[in-house]
Write a structure and sequence with these properties.
mainly alpha, Stability protein StbD, 31 residues, 2 helices
């Protein structure tokens, strides 16, 4: 398992904060 770099992590967090419901749906679809 590789770690995300700070830029990727920041973008991921920003995306989740800007679209929490969409992120949750994607997480469920990924299971």
């Amino acid at each position: 398992m590789e770690l995300l770099d700070d830029n990727e992590l920041a973008k991921l967090v920003e995306h989740r904060l800007s679209s929490p419901f969409k992120s949750v749906k994607v997480d469920i679809d990924a299971l």
